[in-house]
Amino acid sequence: MKDEKDLIDENELSDMDENAEEKVLDVAALSEDKLSAALDKSATYGDNALNDELEKLAQTFKAELQKAQSMTEEELIKKGIITPEYEDEEGAIPDDELCTCCGEKRKDKSRGENYEYCKDCREAMKNYPFGSLNIISLIVTVVLAVLSVYSFSLDFVPYNTVKEANGYLKQDRLDSAMSAYDGAISAFEDKEITAKWLYLKTSKILFDTMPSGVNSMTDIVTRLDKALSVAELKMPIYGEYANLREESLVLYGTMQNFYKIVENEEYVDFENLSDEQYKQAMTEIGSLIDTEIAVVSKDGKTTKMVPANEGIVRFCQYMYAYSAGKYADSYQYMNKVYETEPSYLWLYAYELGVVELQGGEYEKAELYADALLQTNIESSDGYALKSSIARMTGKSDEAIKFADDGLKYDTNSTELKRLKVMAYVTQGEYEKAKEISDEVIANGSYGLFHMTAIVVENELGNDDKVKSYIEEMEKYEVDLTDRLQEYLDGKITAKQLFTEGTGDVE
Amino acid sequence: MINLYVATRVLTAMGAMLRAFWEQLVCRICGIPAEDVRVFKVSELCGHVEHELTENKKQTFLICFLPFVLNFILSVCFLLGGAYKIVYVGDLKTLTGYLFFWLGISFAANCVPSFEDVLSFKDFFYSKDSNIVLKVILAPFFAIIYGFSILERYSLTFVAAILFAIAFPYVFSYLFPVIVTISQMIS
Known about the structure:
The complex is a heterodimer of chains A (506) and B (187). Chain A has 506 residues and is mainly alpha-helical. Chain A is built from 26 helices and 2 strands. In chain A, α14 runs antiparallel to α15, α17 runs antiparallel to α18 and α23 packs antiparallel against α24. Chain A starts with a helix and ends in a 7-residue tail after the last helix. Chain B starts with a helix and ends with a helix. Chain B has 187 residues and is mainly alpha-helical.
């Protein structure tokens, strides 16, 4: 084997600088390795094959050598064959040229003058390992996300019901909204979930509609007590609900005091009162305005005395006067309800509307009907008023339409069906009227409905049917009204019965 | 301002960690050198991975889009379990509701790419010689990330995330009929 010195001398390498020289020698060494490998194989070759192999190797070596020799130093640096050495006095890479990451190698200036990292570190940064905390976070997150979606799916049906209820509320369909919210509340209660916002919403709807009178008042307080704690009821953000609770309790307390008065032996038979007894009763009921109602806190620990509600007291006076047949008085008291509590539409609007209607004040009656429907577009009282107004102003088709509009929301309303029957009678459509009255009577008795049905059967000449209805009413101790008797006596026609005066059988 | 920014990242730690994870994942997929993958550092890039500038549209799009979409999906998943309980019906007694609600806000507050990435996005997709059709298609997405990345600099994405979480149940409930239809088809 030739040694390094022989190779240098033979190939005239002594004039090259050390670095280039070293590289060339590397190439040579490689060629030497190939040569020695070839020599090792030479035993298996014939003489000609061996010579060919050696010739090839020599040519390769020469070509690489010539190539290296022809390159300039810059080209060798550019190709990465040699690295430029900037030497300071000590012979090491200056600090500002060191890679920021490893601190050992030179910054890769081919990426830019200000590039901070070496090639190796750059390559490593492309495969930066994920931290264990990241992996754990990912797993925990995915598990929790699945649990969250699962939890939502379990409660999806009541959420959908709440969505429907919210939709009804936006359309002012308070009855449907109430029904849907109650459905959702019930579903959540089965899962022992207190749906706070639903209780609060429904308590407000109940207060605006009071569908069940006194029962609604206690229902409001129950819902608010379920939703809010004692501390929350004292917070300003729940002030509205605290006031609602107090108001409901005052209304309920006032009504209870009214019931105590009318249970008195002297006043209980209100249909047969003397004038003096009537005045006495009205004075006693009126004095409730100056009383106070005890409003007890949710935990029962504190009691607050609050003046009785004047509006409800006037309503109590209205009820008693109406029951005693003092209609002029009842109208006065109902007007006072409107004056003292104009927001209590549920208390006065329908009754005042009927009074105005029966007094021929159709425009005023229309205002009350519109107010009822603005608050709750499903108000059967509103549609009843509208239907009655239309019938009494000679618009029987409109009367039927309003009754049908109300029946869309309250399919079981016997009053709206009765108004439809009355409208058909004014049109002379007795068969259509009979169809409805037969259906309603078959589903249960209804005093006023029987009287209306009597008119229908009478117009159709069904005397037997008229007689059986009168007998049924006698069974339940319901007397025929004066107006109905007038009609049966032939003093007024069916059309006059339903379009003039009170416009009704009573 | 930096301190407030870092504080909101810490408050929404899970969202920040996962966003950094997604960004690091995209860097690995696209071969973008990541210089600093620490999630919580006191700088403008807190909650983001510090990486070299992207070199092409694919890298730019993925680094902006993928973390955004993944964190948004996770936010929606958590708000389904949390926002409906807390905001929609008022079930305030279950701890899981609060946990999911907080996680939903965390992920919503950490959807947006860094401002630098958004600017790269703008350079690649909204330069003069970019495809007009692509500009139109990507416009809504770009508007969202651009707007919110500016908000993020003032730590307002946290507030925006809370508002989003409160509005979420009312907006998502418009999809209920679709969910009902799909479940009926499945059953």
